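JOB MANIFEST
job_type = single_chain_structure
chain_count = 1
residues = 210
[input]
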Amino acid sequence: MLAIAGGAGGAGKTTTALGLARALPDRVVVADADVDMPDLHHLAGLGRDQTLAAVADGRDPGAVARAWPGADGVAVVPAPTGDDAVVPGLDRLRGTADAVLVDCPGGAGPDAAAPLRAADAALLVTTAEPRALRDATKTAATARALGTAVAGAVLTRARRAPDGLVALLDCPALGAVPDVDPPVLPDPDARGAYRRIARQLIRDSACQEI
């Protein structure tokens, strides 16, 4: 289980979660753990009639997860309306697909810490803006304090990672996603970037279990 995490909203966590899900092989489930700003189902073009709360309550995850029209083999679980369902729901999603990606809340507060604690590893998503980079360092520190490995970082709205990113975040820079006109996911340059990042994730021994 891989937490897609970072600082405040707007860095591209939700887009990265879906972009990577489409690029990874086999079956992937993407779960939204952001109770306050549940954007995953909107971006995926799906409803929110059943959520992670239903999984937490014991419903079959396969019956709750909705197939994403944007890619074969990718299913989406919308965010619940309350924080108390996040960790139990994620625990029940574990092992239901070849990879489970978690779209995390921004920041480093308790709501962001819960899915980070539940995950096996975290992928940091940030822009090159100084504030975003500072937030990403806080997220990395939170993940490590919780015992969750930081698998790497993805830079959004850029052609390449800036010098010093690896040292700043103390993790590999797995790739950059260019700044393209929305919608981002159908753009061929963005799709190519996420394919390269997915290949790097698969090669990275720290991400053998996602």
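[summary]
Residues 2-207 form a domain with the Rossmann fold fold (CATH 3.40.50.300).
The CA atoms of residues 23 and 195 lie 5 Å apart.
exit_status = 0
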